[in-house]
Amino acid sequence: MKILAIETSCDETAVAIVEDGRKVLSNVIATQIDLHKKFGGVVPEVASRMHVEKINYIIKEALQLANLTLEDINAVGVTYGPGLVGALLVGVVSAKAISFAKNIPLIGVHHIEGHISANYIEYPDLEPPFLCLVVSGGHTHLIKVNGYTQYQIIGKTRDDAVGEAYDKVARTMGLTYPGGPKIDELSKMGNASIPFPKAMLDDGYDFSFSGIKSSVLNYINSCKMKNEEINVADIATSFQQTVIDILVHKTMKLAKEQNFTKIALAGGVASNNGLRTAMKEECSKNGYNLYIPSPKLCTDNAAMIGSIAYYRYKSGIQSNMSLNAVANLPIDLSF
Ligand code: KG4
Ligand code: ZN
After folding, report:
1. Kindly report the CA angle at 46 between 40 and 49, in degrees rounded to 5?
2. Nearest CA to ligand 1 atom 1
3. What is the pLDDT of residues 255-264, one digit of tens each?
4. pLDDT at 107 over 50
5. Which of 141, 177, 133 has its CA nearest to residue 291?
6. Protein residues with C-beta less than 5 angstroms from the ion ligand 2
7. Residues with Cβ < 8 Å from 13, sequence gap 6 or more?
């Protein structure tokens, strides 16, 4: 079954064609990062306009790269939330148009369900159940993946998502959007010498990252007041190490407590070098199997949407022409 998948929830216009949930025939991503950089973050109205300009060309390119036409497509999958509503709408409307014109099924999917499913593409033998740490710009969740469309949230952030904290800290340090990859690069060059707080470390499975963000700001301000030199590499390394310690600690604790031996990572922050290395070390120490998608499948893409759309369809889940964009689509048991 060949699914054409569309992802426009934020600042990437992405279209992919995925066969039977696991085989990527094409995966096209047009990023708008350069456009938003000068504003220090994504400007919703600019993002929607760019999606409108690009979407038809990206659909065409995805078909061409897969050597297919719309006649060969068996269903359309699309992210309908969460995300920027104007941006999501462009994808939803395009998917509905194709579904209607070609009379093929329409499958709306939750963006985070897509991120988790990037693992099915990277690891053809991976099957639920497994434990997944989702770390993106909007989410930080510890999720039990009980089945292809069955999820149970064990922990989540009470304030900022980890990617959001990365981007805000980066802005404080004068780095351009998106700051995550830049902090990741800088942390190869510094020392983890600044003791930032590890909020809620042993307090259940929820996370909190707004405190560490304020601590970085306070640290920079106090250096400035004392006329002390600011070592950005040390700040980046200390911040990154603190965040990784929290993420790894909670994931390992949960895996031990609930006897999980398969652990997956998902979301843009899963492309972080420090997190990947730390997770690999801890998992091998404990004898767990670790699954991490390649960086291109960690950040926003449509291949992951094509994968989960397939499994939703196989579970009998389909959308109809009333499908709408939902900016704050909840992530819960039902999806
Ligand atoms: O999953 P994603 O592409 O979009 C959302 O669904 O949010 O994640 C984007 C987030 C941004 O906050 C970005 O700074 C962060 O992922 N990110 C990273 C890295 N690459 C992307 N954070 C830390 N280290 C990285 N290498
Ligand atoms: Zn995402």
Report:
1. 160
2. 268
3. 999 999 999 9
4. yes
5. 133
6. 136, 300
7. 29, 30, 32, 50, 51, 54, 55, 58, 90
pLDDT, residue 20, reads 98
pLDDT the model gives residue 143: 97
CA of 229 from ligand 2 middle (Å) equals 36
Residue nearest to atom 20 of ligand 1 (CA): 181
166 Cβ below 6 A of ligand 1: yes
Residue type, position 209, single letter: F
- Is the CB of residue 271 below 6 angstroms from any atom belonging to ligand 1? yes
Average pLDDT rounded to a whole number, residues 271-286: 98
- 310: enclosing H helix or E strand: helix 303-314
* DSSP secondary structure code for residue 138 in this structure: S
183: left (phi over 0), alpha (psi -120 to 50) or beta: alpha
**Domains in the chain, CATH or no CATH each:** 2-116+297-334 (3.30.420.40), 129-295 (3.30.420.40)
Q: Tell me the pLDDT of the chain averaged across its residues.
A: 96
Read off the pLDDT of residues 295-331 as tens digits, 9 standing for 90 and up: 999 999 999 999 999 999 999 999 999 999 999 998 7
For atom 5 of ligand 1, the residue with the nearest CA is 137
Mean pLDDT calculated for residue range 82-102: 98
Going by alpha carbons, the residue nearest to atom 23 of ligand 1 is 180
Average pLDDT over residues 285-291: 98
Beta-sheet pairing, 262-266 with 130-135:
parallel
**pLDDT confidence of residue 149:** 93
Q: Indicate if ligand 1 lies below 6 Å from the C-beta of 184.
A: yes
Backbone angles phi, psi at 139, to 5 degrees: -135, 145
> Which backbone phi and psi does 79 adopt, to 5 degrees?
-75, 125
- Read off the pLDDT band of 245 (50, 70, 90): very high
State if residue 181 touches ligand 1 by the CB under 6 angstroms criterion. Answer: yes
Query: How remote is the CA of residue 193 from the centroid of ligand 1, in Å?
Result: 24
